[in-house]
Amino acid sequence: MRVVLAEDNALFRQGLARLLTDAGVTVSAEVGDATALLAAVAASSPDVVVVDVRMPPGYEVEGLEAAQRIRREHPSVGVLMLSHHIEAQHAIGLLGQDARGVGYLLKDRVTDVLELTDALRRVHAGATVIDPDVVLRLVGRPRRDGGLARLSQRERDVLALMAEGRSNHAISRLLHLSPKTVETHVRNIFLRLDLTATDDDHRRVLAVLTYLRS
Q: What domains lie within the chain, and their CATH numbers?
């Protein structure tokens, strides 16, 4: 797996590059601003980019805007955003109309190289990976009834883990449910959210988008 790192803090960027290299990930470029990120993606065609939300020159949403552009212009490239703080609106802004191949993690997570490389692999495979703390913040918001009111508490638990990018097998293990029970909950979520019968991967993405935007 080839990764481009975009982070303005040189020490953090170099440390992250070393962690990933030691874990067997190929870091094809390390850059410090959004303009250099876009050039690196065009030049090296990475599998995934790791991008800080706030980058030079304004340290506002330059990284997020670059990530959104990458999603439009290079749809095969996965995007994993990093942030110091829980900024749920940035996670939602990154998702757009399709949450496949997108991740959003707090920077504290990257000290755990296994968690980071797992997130990169899942994003590369087309999954959605949302930091559990961001999911908790979203769960706590006042919510509109986007169909979610029809879900049972256990179905909401399953959907929250789906929003973190967890597979049915992982959900089964985390909630101590049988795989068949998880499959039943997932089917019920699709039905209660009125998601028409397309392939299950696509409906899974739509369910997560409904959850995050409601």
A: 2-137 (3.40.50.2300), 142-213 (1.10.10.10)
Closest C-alpha among 195, 137, 191 to residue 164: 137
Contact by Cβ (8 Å): 75, 49: no
Measured CA to CA, the distance from residue 214 to residue 110 in angstroms comes to 28
Q: Count CB-CB contacts under 10 A for residue 136.
A: 11
Closest C-alpha to 193, from 155, 146, 161, 132: 146
DSSP state of 175: H
The two structure tokens encoding residue 195: 């998601």
Per DSSP, the three-state class of 100 is coil
Confidence of residue 204 (pLDDT cuts 50, 70, 90): confident
**Strand order, beta sheet including 2-6:** 26-31, 2-6, 48-52, 78-83, 102-106, 128-130
Give yes or no for residue 210 having a pLDDT over 80. no
> How many degrees, rounded to 5, is the angle at CA 89 between CA 206 and CA 8?
115
Q: In this predicted model, what pLDDT tens digit does every residue of 128-147 receive, in sequence order?
A: 888 777 766 655 554 455 56
Q: Which residues of 145-177 are buried (b: 16+ CB within 10 A; e: fewer)?
A: eebbeebeeebebbbbbbbbbbebeebbeeeeb
- For residue range 63-111, what is the model confidence (pLDDT) as tens digits? 888 988 998 899 899 999 888 776 656 666 666 556 678 888 888 877 7
Which of 117, 118, 76, 115 minimizes the C-alpha distance to 98? Answer: 76
Q: Which single residue is written with the structure tokens 């790791």?
A: 50
